[in-house]
Structure formats: structure tokens, C-alpha cells
Design goal:
The complex is a heterodimer of chains A (about 180) and B (about 200).
Chain A lengths: L1 H25 L4 H9 L2 H24 L2 H15 L7 H6 L4 H15 L4 H12 L3 H12 L7 H24 L1
Chain B lengths: L1 H18 L4 H37 L2 H8 L1 H7 L8 H14 L3 H17 L9 H11 L7 H9 L9 H26 L12
Helix pairs in contact in B: 2-6, 3-5, 5-6, 6-7, 7-9
The chains are: A mainly alpha (about 180), B mainly alpha (about 200).
Chain lengths: ~180, ~200
């Protein structure tokens, strides 16, 4: 099944790049003009995200790089080990929703020290791969259109992250322990 | 909520730095964070320009409408508040397909375009709509068939079976995404009244 899906992922982009313009030509769309018209929106959209992303990533960097996160983690770790959650993956779970590169650094350190094919290695990979960076997605998507009041979106995203973390832990324990 | 999380992260960082007597940590972190954020946005420029161009061709050719018509049952279930013929639907479905097939680069431009179209339906441009929250729930829970990035990293560290985690990841992401959709529904009912207006508490 992996080969099939991986093949689809690989040929999807080239296939789309041929299919979309070809189909459009048959519909008598001036494709080059259309492309330019659409592409014009790219730059202002990217620029409009800057303030939102700077605001968020500065706060995340301060929280992470000053050691504040480490400080909170040390209280959390005993509680989590009580529930048989390996302490090595706790930082990944905590960082995953707020900083994708931050949690990736912890995943890489586990893969380096324990090896990618160990229980911890597989668990860390699964946690990293099973959800996206909630805070980043929220900031970018709402930032791009100027939404200030995100209602319950953050709450839902964070719950989903926790559920994804626990699900990864459950499924990896069943399969690999 | 976001205001408090933001302030909490900054305050704990400053206190932690003060406890170590090293305020330079805060300064460096702030500058690095800002630099990284701008770098991410600069990286987004090329992707956005390219994909928004391609998407415009698809839209002008009526392809997005076709996709929306094809996937109507899914779309109506997930986004009951968006008129099925609305252009937002085409972008939403493109965004979901791109995520599913691991075209992460393409997913963001399509998602942002979907947001923009949803914003046109929004009576209050500063406050999110239920459809926007659903789109966000789908994107933050990261539904994808193949976690390509992490497979690459496993290879880098000499994994014998880099793809072995596809199965567990798929199960975990499926659970997370379904729960996200359910929770999104639950909060939607608590936040909006029957006619789709915000309950007073949330304004």
C-alpha cells in the first residue's frame, strides 16, 4: 500500500502541472494570463502573515530558549511517567503544537541516541508525523485574512494534538512493545 | 485564550531568564524568533506565488467547481454552513486533497485561498466563522496518508524500515482528525445559536 500511495504523491505534482493547464486550454482559458493574475496574490498574502508569525514565533522562542519550557517539563515528567508515558517523548508532545522545528529537534535526538527502529524511535516518529503544528497553522490561516477572534479553534487544535499524542502512544505500545 | 497563552510564554521565559541572571537569553530568543518567522514567510512567498497562479488556472477552467461537485457529500457534511456552489468549497477540497496526498507545499496556498473565500461569507471579518474553525481543525490535526518528512528523517538516521511507522501514524492521525471534527461540532453548537449567530458570551 505504501508503494502505491508514495507513487501517487510523487507523480501527483507533475500530473497536476500537465492536467490543469491542458484542461484549461480546452476550456479556452488564457492560461498564462490566468496564472499571472493568480500569482499576483502570492506576495501580498505572504507579507500579510509576517506580523502574525513574528508575534507568535517570538513568544515560542522566548518560552523555549530561556529554559522556561524545561522548567515546566520537570514537573510534568513524574506525573506522566506514572501513566507509563516515556519521559523522552514528553517534550515532543508538549512542543509539537507550538513549534514544528522545536519538536523535530527532540525527535532527531531520540533517533540519534536510541536509533530509529527502537520502540522510542518509532513512537517519536509517529507522534511527530500524526499531527500538524497547531499554533503555526492557526496563526498563518487566521492571520492571512485578519481574523482576531479565533473562537474555539485553538482549543479544538490542542485537544486534537493531545488525542493524537495518546493515540500514537497507544498504537505504538500495542504494535512494538 | 490565545492572548493568555502568548503572555504566559513570554512571562515564563523572562522569569526563567531572570532566575538564571541571563537576560541576554530573552533578547537573543526574541530576535531569533522574529528572524525565523520572517524566513518562514519569505519561504512561503515562492510557494504562494506559484500555487496561487496554478489554482487560478484551475478555477478559471471550472476545475474547482468540478471537484466540489464530485465531493459534495463530504463537503456538505463537514461544511454545512457553506453554500455547496460557493468557490470556497473548491478550495477547501483542494486543500484537503493536497494534505491527504502529502503535497504539503500546495496545501497552504489552497487553504489560505479557502480562508479568503470564507471571509467573503463572514458577517464579522474580525471573528472566525464555524466553517473557518472546521477548516482549521482539519489542517491542525494533520490528516495525511504518508508522513513524508518524518520518513526522510528516519532514513537520515539509518532506519532499516523507515516506512514502518506509516500504519501507526495513519491510525493516530485518523483518530486525531475524527476527534477534531467531533470536538469542532461540539464547540460550534455551544458557540453559535440555531440561526448561526454568535452567542453573546463570545463577542
Amino acid at each position: 500500500m505504501f508503494e502505491a500511495v508514495s507513487l501517487i504523491s510523487k507523480i501527483m505534482l507533475p500530473a497536476l502541472l500537465v492536467f490543469i493547464p491542458l484542461y484549461a486550454l480546452f476550456q479556452r482559458v488564457p492560461i498564462y494570463e490566468s496564472f499571472i493574475e493568480g500569482a499576483k496574490e502570492g506576495f501580498p498574502t505572504a507579507v500579510s502573515i509576517i506580523p502574525h508569525l513574528v508575534g507568535m514565533m517570538v513568544a515560542v522562542a522566548i518560552f523555549r530558549d530561556t529554559g522556561a519550557m524545561q522548567f515546566y517539563l520537570q514537573f510534568l515528567t513524574p506525573v506522566l511517567s506514572f501513566f507509563h508515558i516515556p519521559e523522552e517523548v514528553v517534550p515532543i508532545g508538549i512542543l509539537r503544537p507550538i513549534s514544528g522545528t522545536g519538536s523535530l529537534a527532540f525527535v532527531e535526538s531520540i533517533l540519534r541516541t536510541h536509533g530509529p527502529d527502537t520502540f522510542l524511535g518509532k513512537l517519536a516518529s509517529t507522534i511527530q508525523g500524526s499531527t500538524d503544528t497547531t499554533l503555526y497553522v492557526l496563526t498563518v490561516y487566521f492571520g492571512a485574512v485578519g481574523i482576531r477572534n479565533s473562537l474555539y479553534a485553538l482549543k479544538v487544535g490542542l485537544w486534537a494534538d493531545l488525542i493524537g499524542f495518546l493515540a500514537s502512544l497507544g498504537i505504538c505500545s500495542i504494535l512494538y512493545l | 485564550m490565545i492572548n493568555w497563552i502568548w503572555f504566559f510564554m513570554i512571562l515564563s521565559g523572562v522569569v526563567a531568564a531572570a532566575a538564571q541572571g541571563r537576560f541576554d537569553l530573552v533578547t537573543n530568543a526574541a530576535l531569533n524568533g522574529a528572524k525565523d518567522a520572517v524566513a518562514v514567510c519569505i519561504g512561503l512567498i515562492s510557494i504562494l506565488v506559484f500555487w496561487l497562479g496554478m489554482m487560478r488556472i484551475a478555477q478559471d477552467a471550472g476545475l474547482l467547481e468540478k471537484l466540489a461537485r464530485l465531493m459534495r457529500p463530504v463537503a456538505r457534511f463537514l461544511f454545512p454552513t457553506v453554500p455547496p456552489e460557493h468557490p470556497a468549497m473548491g478550495y477547501i477540497l483542494s486543500n484537503m486533497s493536497a494534505n491527504l496526498f502529502g503535497l504539503g507545499n500546495a496545501a497552504t496556498p489552497m487553504g489560505l485561498k479557502a480562508m479568503e473565500e470564507l471571509q467573503k461569507l463572514n458577517p464579522d471579518p474580525k471573528t472566525a466563522t464555524p466553517a473557518m474553525c472546521t477548516l482549521l481543525a482539519l489542517n491542525t490535526s494533520g490528516l495525511t496518508l504518508i508522513p513524508t518528512t518524518i520518513i526522510g528523517i528516519r532514513l537520515k538516521y539509518g532506519s532499516v524500515e523507515p516506512t514502518e511507522i506509516i500504519g501507526p501514524t495513519l491510525v493516530a492521525t485518523f483518530i486525531a482528525t475524527s476527534m477534531a471534527v467531533l470536538l469542532d461540532r461540539y464547540y460550534q453548537h455551544r458557540t453559535f445559536d440555531r440561526s448561526g449567530l454568535l452567542k453573546p458570551h463570545w463577542k
